Amino acid sequence: MSKFLLTALVLLVVAGAAAANDPDVAPAPQPYRVQPGDVLTVSVWKEDGLTGDVFVRPDGGLSFPLAGDISASGKSIEDLRKEITERLKHYMPQPVVTVAVKQIGGNHIYVLGKVNRPGDFQFTTPVDVMQALSLAGGATPYAALNDIVILRRENGHEQAIRFRYGDVERGRDLPQNVLLHSGDTVVVP
Description:
Largest sheet: 5 strands, mixed
Number of strands: 10
Strand order of the largest sheet: 7-6-10-8-9
Number of helices: 4
Oligomer: single chain
CATH topology of the largest domain: Outer membrane lipoprotein wza fold like
Order of helices and strands: HEEEEHEEEHEEHE
Helix content: 10-25%
């Protein structure tokens, strides 16, 4: 290996290590997780009868010919593709499966209480509490901004997350400005 190539390789490794430790470098985005209400397009190469749109039911499941019922909610598109592929292997050799999101219908947050436009809001990119308040048109003059609560239901248990607007507005206690999950409700008293 020439000195030039060796030097270039060392520089690439050093630059990669520096980027991995740099707090200003954004982490890789998380894969999209399927939600009830989403519409997916599933196709199997060279199998016209195994191509079509699939609706993710309110219970988080979907049905696909030969693969049967599959629990899809919370899975990445790649995880779902692998599962369908494995199930189809019982009926055909080496199926080539493609799964794509056709329509996002499941990512909703709710903002209610003393805001200018309460309601549910669909999102395609991560939304934090401050952004949700903005989507709702901001708070009304009589809102108790330091008593905001985010209601979150996970695994059948509901939890309340406190949010003090004044702290975040001043740049303090920023970790409380959490990214909202699908189904979260922001209550502005």
